[in-house]
Amino acid sequence: MFRHSRGAILRSLAISLALVLAVLALPTKQATRSTATLPASHLTSSTTASAGYLLAGADGSVYGFGAQSYGSTYSDGLTGLGGTHPLAAPIVGMAATPDGGGYWMVGKDGGIFDFGNAHFYGSTYTYGITGLSGAHPLNAPIVGMAATPNGEGYWMVAADGGVFDFGDAGFYGSTYSDGITGLGGAHPLNKPIVGMTVAPGGNGYWLVAADGGVFNFGSAPFLNSLGSEQIPAPIVAMVMVPQEHGYDVSNFNCQDLPNSPQGLMFVETNGYPFSFDYAPPSSTACGTPSDGISQGLMAALEIAGNATQPYLFVGDSPSATNANPAVTDYVPSGCATDSADVGLAANGTALPGWNSTTCQYDEPSAGGDFTNAPVTTQGCQLYVDAGHSCGAPGPNFNFGWQQAIFGYDTATINANAADLPNIVHNTWWLDVETGGTWTSNPQSNYDAILGAISALESLGVANVGVYSTNYQWSQITDGGTLPSGTSLWVPDPGASPASVCQGTAGSSWSPFGGGAIRYVQYGTTGQFGGAIDEDASC
User: Fold this and answer.
1) 64-97: b (≥16 Cβ within 10 Å) or e
2) Residue 133 has what pLDDT?
3) Neighbours of 17 (CB within 10 A)
4) pTM of the entire structure?
5) Which of 129, 149, 307, 367 has a CB 3.0–4.6 Å from the CB of 202, allowing a cystine?
6) Neighbour-count burial of 280, counting CB atoms closer than 10 A to its CB (0-12 exposed, 13-18 middle, 19+ buried)
């Protein structure tokens, strides 16, 4: 296998109505917003990136939506797929520079066209290859391209699995490196290659074939493929999903929060001083709460911003002396219309507002009446499947429901105060650990967890995940089944995040409840003062 070449550089601003073959997302800037309500040590100013995109037509035209077009192949007099000066071959791919200030397009013949701040580093013609025909044609047509992370190089991939590197793009192998002989020969591909994507850091890449077969090179790990499965239609493209890194913070971290916005942050919404359930409101560890607003929780939400994923530390311990057993010592009024509706009361104290008409949603009464509460959630369905009724729940389901309502109320009030009202609709997590307060009956504990899931689902939370381990989940619920599609967030002491995500770390880190691992808590850092947990996505 040899590597291939370059072509004429042609560009233009004209736009024609041709078949669109590529979509390219480009970063754009939004205005910064500084936070003036936080303690001084937590003041931040952040710039949020949003995305525009460009579409490339087979004729070399470019269409911009929320992103600037820097030219098309019409700029230098080319006339698309026909006319007096047509392209040698249709455009089949596109890649952007890191700052969105330019882009490349690649033709089926390996010709490269550069625009804006994208530089020309070569095409298949550079090495004497003569496109799709002529004296030295490509073995197979080009089907896609990808740029290096710094924008100083790029790769092309051909249908036969040939890879061509230019600029600072490293050559890490091709399907020929694995002894495959392209589209014919003694050991041909089962199906043609249709796309490629670059591994984080740019030191490797993946290729994908029409049958779903995946080929990994360099630092790109093999995570599985569809090559041995029957799929209803051919694969036509692939994209790398970047791994997120960040932190999870709780009431133990209110003095040691990260000092800048992070890409991934889980924020506990119950557990004093982030809220009021585990200590009297007179505590000043992270500022005295006022009108339902916790300075510690406010600071965490301001730093995490719209990427906040709230979580609840849950348990199961309903008390006969507590009419609305949301927590052991203190219970909320449960109505989140304004900060005055969230208060504290001792065990057994009657609380106004649980089914108040001023509430944004119905909640169970002290007697467990769910007459007006939504009962069509996945959590409720599992509860019904276990022989119960969501219309008249037992005390454990009710207990879990109340815990989740309290956490949601607390998050709502603080999120509104932080001018981040939409974060309560993000993914929520239930922290299920043996260190929590649980009964000795796994079924009762499972019912409480289903109650918490159902409450959040009834409030419009689309995704409720669970933080635990398969051992703890088994101890607490005896292996209870979670709603279909539930995401899992797991700690991984002694194992690498990659091995946990790939399912190769061993049974101690295997999924539980029928869920799929989405995030891994992989270590701690002291860079902000006290120890804060670090997390990564799979």
Assistant:
1) eeebebbbbbbbeebbbbeeeeebbbbbbbbbbb
2) 95
3) 10
4) 0.57
5) 149
6) exposed
